[in-house]
Specification:
Strand content: 15-25%
Number of helices: 14
Helix content: 40-55%
CATH architecture of the largest domain: 3-Layer(aba) Sandwich
Structural class: alpha/beta
Radius of gyration: 20 Å
Bound molecules: pyridoxal-5'-phosphate
């Protein structure tokens, strides 16, 4: 088959082992999964309540325009409904953007290490990937601006950045945006927005009206706890959104996901309580790192990257045998580190205890 050369050389995304498999393999009764930045508290109880009382018709296609969810988002952010693009997770929004703007001969600039899907999609589209290394876990915005040239179509910014948890402050972000040519799309990935507490964080919604070449992505998979439903979205000027809408599949978000996301959005007290617990959880890890002289990046997300100064894969294996699944830094560009999702207080205590034993 004449598969595109760039696809032949790509490796498919390698998901972590399912918890049930790990249980069986190591004879464990319980698994604590802290690998994919899911919400340890699940999701708003209002969602199950709603599903108990309201059925959805599985036999009919979803509303392809996701009108109810779109309108709820518009109200929530005081934007127009036409300023949103919904996706089967923000992963799909990244794919739609890449498909719309990238092709052979075009370049795309991105930080590294960062979220893997920017590069993955760019390679599929045959575009040239320009990776700009982080400095101390943070975007090197100066070098990223300098890397942009006439053939650049997209520049990716991830704040808070996965896997480092670092963020960009308002002043730095604006000064970078001012350097990006108006015909280069800036994608600002804010998958962890709801967890941010930094005082000098920017307001992405007002930046959208100031920068017509800015597209912001957010998701229901992380703080909203709906990873299994696959709903993410992009927000930008109406004109920008309309220019990429034709690439979106007609029924890309499903009936259940649309319903669940709409309800989740209404329960902001769930989000603030999760964000508060997350702050407290991060403190548990900071304390542990200080006690053991381990370096880490202060995080604005619901995960922490800790440098253990030993092989991340080996450490990962040791933890898995004890019933904890985390992400090895090997595949994330930090070979001697682990990325650990912040769990509940009890989960954090448990894994920290095991880590202390291993150390
Ligand atoms: C998890 C994540 C996403 C994708 O989430 P979806 O489940 O596809 O919405 C996007 N960007 C970053 C940085 C992430 O960590």
């Amino acid at each position: 088959m004449n598969v595109r050369a760039q696809v032949t050389n790509l490796v498919p995304y390698k998901p972590g082992k399912p918890s049930d498999e790990v249980k069986k393999e190591f004879g464990l009764s319980e698994i604590v999964k802290l690998a994919s930045n899911e919400n340890p508290f699940g999701y708003s109880s209002k969602i199950d309540e709603w599903f108990r009382e309201n059925g959805v018709n599985h036999a009919i296609y979803p509303d392809g325009y996701a009108s109810n969810l779109r309108n709820s988002l518009a109200r929530h952010y005081s934007l127009k409904p036409q300023q949103f693009i919904l996706g089967n997770g923000s992963d799909e929004v990244i794919q739609i953007i890449s498909r719309s703007l990238l092709e052979p001969g075009k370049k795309t600039v991105m930080p590294v290490p960062s979220f893997s899907q920017y590069k993955h999609n760019a390679i599929i589209e045959g575009a040239e990937v320009v990776e700009v290394p982080l400095i101390d876990g943070e975007h090197d915005l100066q070098s990223m601006a300098e890397a942009i040239d006439e053939s650049t179509s997209i520049v990716w910014v991830c704040s808070p950045n996965n896997p480092t948890g670092t963020y960009i402050n308002d002043a730095k972000l604006r000064s970078f945006f001012d350097k990006v040519p108006k015909d280069v799309l800036i994608v600002l990935d804010e998958a962890y927005y709801e967890y941010v507490t930094a005082d000098d964080y920017y307001d992405a919604i007002s930046l959208i009206s100031e920068y017509p070449n800015l597209l912001v992505t957010r998701t229901f998979s992380k703080a909203y706890g709906l990873a299994g439903f696959r709903v993410g979205y992009g927000m930008a000027s109406e004109e920008l959104i309309q220019s990429i809408e034709p690439v979106r599949q007609p029924f890309n978000t499903n009936v259940l996901g649309q319903a669940a996301a709409g309800i989740a959005l209404e329960d902001q007290s769930f989000i603030s309580s999760c964000s508060k617990s997350n702050r407290e959880g991060l403190e548990q890890y900071y304390q542990f790192c200080k006690e053991h002289g381990l370096s880490y990046f202060p995080s604005q997300g619901n995960f922490i990257l800790i440098d253990f100064k030993q092989d991340g894969d080996l450490l990962f294996e040791q933890l898995m045998k004890k019933g904890f699944i985390v992400r090895s830094g090997q595949a994330l560009g930090y070979p001697t580190a682990l990325r650990i999702t912040i769990g509940s207080k009890e989960q954090n205590e448990k894994i920290i205890k095991v880590l202390k034993e291993i150390l």
